[in-house]
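In response to the reviewer comment on reproducibility (Comment 2.3), we provide here a single inverse folding case reported in full, input and output, so that an independent group could reproduce the run without further information from us. The structure tokens appear first.
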């Protein structure tokens, strides 16, 4: 399993440091140089980010909270978190290019980088303790056992809350995925996995976390289950 996991991680790293970087940088921007599918992915992901911010706004003593954004991408979540005036934020991504882009976007907006730590790292190698740990739309690149292992590790980093999102397994998504396998070529990126919601929840439960709320966000070509956990 370890060799398979390392293979998955290497594929993800190479993709997001290469052709995938430019593709997703455009998707998570205001660029019009994207197709209809990509625009719907942008819309769906923004829904997920907006929901997370709505959760976080209700946390007491927000300005004293520390956050970890694991798999930060180009900073879509990091930027609104900083605008909330949180105490500290650590952002990490397996891709150094994504970290560079996050830094650039924060700088262009004139936001202070004094409260933020940037880290190029595998998710499993992250260390520290944070009040809130967030990981959005990362698990789609990994199979169920690896995703559950990641959830357990993220729980170890969190003192209070864990928020994750992933593509949930449904018969419709499974069908779409199988259809996609019939069309090889440059449209293929990394492997895309739909995950068992029960498995993700059980992994968090094992670490003493329970579900606070759940929501399914969907736009054409975007399906993401958002779950907020709290530590018991």
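Designed residues, in position order:
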């Amino acid at each position: 399993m370890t060799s398979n996991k390392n293979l998955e991680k290497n594929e993800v790293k190479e993709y997001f440091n290469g052709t995938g970087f430019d593709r997703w940088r455009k998707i998570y921007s205001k660029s019009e140089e994207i197709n209809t599918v990509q625009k719907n992915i942008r819309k769906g992901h923004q829904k997920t980010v907006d929901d997370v911010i709505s959760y976080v706004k209700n946390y007491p003593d927000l300005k004293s909270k520390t956050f970890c954004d694991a798999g930060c991408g180009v900073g879509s979540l990091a930027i609104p978190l900083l605008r909330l005036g949180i105490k500290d934020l650590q952002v990490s991504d397996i891709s150094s290019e994504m970290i560079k882009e996050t830094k650039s976007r924060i700088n262009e907006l004139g936001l202070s980088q004094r409260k933020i730590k940037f880290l190029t790292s595998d998710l499993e190698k992250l260390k520290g303790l944070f009040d809130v740990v967030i990981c959005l739309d990362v698990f789609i690149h990994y199979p169920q056992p690896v995703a559950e292992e990641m959830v357990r590790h993220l729980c170890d980093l969190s003192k209070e809350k864990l928020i994750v999102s992933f593509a949930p397994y449904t018969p419709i998504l499974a069908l779409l995925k199988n259809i996609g396998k019939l069309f090889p070529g440059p449209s293929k990126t990394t492997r895309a996995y739909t995950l068992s919601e029960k498995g993700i929840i059980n992994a968090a439960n094992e670490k003493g976390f329970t579900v606070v709320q759940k929501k399914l966000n969907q736009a054409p070509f975007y399906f993401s289950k958002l779950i907020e956990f709290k530590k018991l």
